[in-house]
Amino acid sequence: MTKPIVLMVIDMQQGMAWPQAGERNNPNAEHKMAELLAHWRASHAPIVHVRHLSTEPGSLFWPEQEGVLFQDAFQPLAGEKVVEKSVPDAFTHSDLETWLREQETHALIVVGVSTNNSVESTVRSAGNLGFNTYVVGSACFAFEKDDFFGQSRSADEVHAMSLANLQGEYATVISQTEAFDLLPQEQTSLRH
């Protein structure tokens, strides 16, 4: 059996779609993610859903309120792995690394939000742990943010810088088409 290529969808929770989350880029990112998710499901390939549970009571992702719930289009199905986290990195305080190694993961394809926070943090760890990691740039998005010196940076600038941070050092940034090409439709794998 071919070693699995795992799709990881990071923090696609209801709060990410709320206005108070901020000004974002890549308005088509959810559509791109949903297409990738459908392709992985049709191929019976492994999928990981990551969900942020904040420890800050004022957060959009504080447990037991609607912001923390998965968006309808990204609800995990039975057999799909769910990882809950309270820090940006999905590998910290979770069984994610163990699970990926048990799957004998060939590669990890990462999509989600936000590019410069949970996506970047998780991808850095994946690369450092030796996983062959890809980021689909068009299937991620970021929010505008002030830089360290107080200059306002657009969501596009934040997104682009984050992808630049990851490219080559921790991961390979790819297009959606390249992601589809990594997982031929006929590939099958068990989902645990």
Short description:
The protein is of the alpha/beta class and about 190 residues long. It has helices at about 30-40, 95-100, 115-130, 155-165, 175-180, and strands at about 5-10, 45-50, 80-85, 105-115, 135-140, 145, 150-155, 170-175.
Order of helices and strands: EHEEHEHEEEHEH
**Class by SSE composition:** alpha/beta
Report low-confidence residues grouped into runs of 5 or more. 186-192
Q: Kindly state the percentage of residues in helix.
A: 25-40%
Q: How many helices?
A: 5
Under CATH, the homologous superfamily reads Isochorismatase-like
What is the CATH T-level topology? Rossmann fold
Q: Count the beta strands.
A: 8
Principal-axis shape? globular
pLDDT averaged over residues: 93
Radius of gyration: 16 Å
- In whole angstroms, the N-to-C terminal distance is 15 Å
Give the CATH level 1 class.
Alpha Beta
Architecture (CATH level 2) name: 3-Layer(aba) Sandwich
Describe the sheet with the most strands.
6 strands, parallel
Strand content: 15-25%
> What is the spatial order of strands in the main beta sheet?
3-2-1-4-5-8
Can you tell me the number of structural domains? 1
